[in-house]
Amino acid sequence: MKFSQELVQTAGRYESPFFLVDRGNVRQQYEKVLASIPGLDVFYAVKANPHPKVLRALAELGCGFEVSSCRELELALEAKASPERIVSYNPVKAPAFLAQAHQAGMRTFAFDSAAELDKLASMAPGSKVVARLVVSNTGSEWPLCGKYGMDAGTTLKLLRRAARLGLQPFGLTFHVGSQCLNKDNWVDALFLCRQVWDQARKKGMQLDLLSLGGGLPVYHGKKVPTTEEIGAAIDGAIRELFPGNRPRLAIEPGRALVGEAAVLVTTVIGRASRGCEEWLYLDAGIFNAIFEASQGIRYQAVTERKGPRRPFTLAGPSCDSVDTICQDVMLPSPRVGDRVYLMNVGAYTLSYASHFNGFPPPPVFFLDEG
User: Fold this and answer.
1) Cα 265–271–272 angle (5° rounding)?
2) What's the average model confidence in pLDDT over 184-196?
3) Crossing angle, helix 23-35 and helix 227-241, to 10 degrees?
4) Which residues in 87-121 are b (16+ Cβ under 10 Å) and which e?
5) In this predicted structure, what is the pLDDT of residue 142?
6) Residue 296 reports pLDDT greater than 90
7) Helix (H, G, I), strand (E, B) or coil at 339
8) Which residues are catalytic?
9) % of the chain exceeding 90 in pLDDT
């Protein structure tokens, strides 16, 4: 969402802090991802922003959903998604979730261990299983390769085990890391997938699906490859690696579909000079609204005030020093009572939010309902 007079006018109807979401932007981003690679199937990672109205907007477009818990599954079903359009690529799932998912009609699950295959065979018999490979996460803001994934040898061994357990070896998946700034990560991962794909065929297993995972980035102050650039790199690799035998392709973006669709509207509740730093205190912060700021994400800050810009440190309202949003933010000297708009906050904000120190998560309003 871009800062505009329309945004300011709509925001003026509500008391801060609050999130303002543009579902039109969500729809545009979905169409952009869908068109980036021929034949691509898109499954939204519900964890990024599970608001029911966001999920319903995507379901109406035919988007699938990727879920990891009973509650996420319930939200996807409430959004009118069919069970066949819901998958779970978290490779370690709670038994209760597996039982509920299988009963609901879900049939596609990822794994990266023998123990997970045993659970799947017991709780979701006959399911299609997708093996998660470990791949390079170089250039990603949040590397994920330490927690999940298998090497090629283990993958082949466990795909054969899956078949013996009555499961259906269906495909391969990987994750290049969240907020990935290096499009070559996908290309390198696909070369590894091709090797495993061929070795599986030699063992009598014909795989069908390549899941490209998540990681598509949005702008947070650093130059990022576009969805079109990443899609072109992936499509080029697929054409080279799978000539005449193109696999089924899927992707599970979260941030890319919702990250740019929201703004957090806050108000300056305090100012202070501390040494050589000028501090601005806002009525929303790390704990109740923008947790990823504590991990290095820099959200663009905008005000309506005009004039020369100077550096400020932005902080939230809680007593904890962790509640420091970012430093050296150039702003035209806001005063107490001025509004500060934090842009591109649609992903991993409300879904992370807590009630720490008695400050609740901000409410959510929609631009097309203002």
Assistant:
1) 145
2) 95
3) 20
4) bbbbbebeeebbebbbeeebbbbbbbeeebbebbb
5) 66
6) no
7) strand
8) 319
9) 90
Q: Which strand (E) or helix (H) includes residue 232?
A: helix 227-241
Which position has the token pair 């319930």?
A: 74
Whether the predicted pLDDT of 191 surpasses 90: yes
CB half-sphere exposure, 20, CA atoms < 13 A? 27
The pLDDT tens digits of the residues spanning 41-52 come to: 999 999 999 999
- If you write DSSP's letter for every residue of 61-88 in order, what string do you get? TT-EEE--SHHHHHHHHHTT--GGGEEB
Which pLDDT score, from 0 to 100, does residue 290 have? Answer: 97
Record the tokens describing residue 281, joined without a space. Answer: 């205190």
Lookup result for tokens 């997708």: 130
Among residues 274, 280, 275, which one has the least CA distance to residue 336? 280
In single-letter form, the type of residue at position 303 comes to T
Structure tokens at 307: 């004039």
Question: And the tokens for 236?
Answer: 């080029």
Q: Which residues pair with 180 in a beta bridge?
A: 140
The type of residue at 118 is: D
Q: Is the pLDDT of residue 311 over 70?
A: yes
Q: Which amino acid is at 14?
A: Y
> What would the two tokens of residue 217 be?
């980035």
The two structure tokens encoding residue 368:
């097309």
Beta strands in 67-182 (DSSP E): 86-87, 108-111, 128-132, 140-142, 168-173, 178-180
pTM of the model: 0.95
pLDDT band at 244 (very low <50, low <70, confident <90, very high): confident
318 pLDDT exceeds 80? yes
Q: Which residues contact 156 (CB under 8 A, 6 or more apart)?
A: 196, 199, 200, 203
Bridge partners (DSSP) of residue 341 are: 265, 302
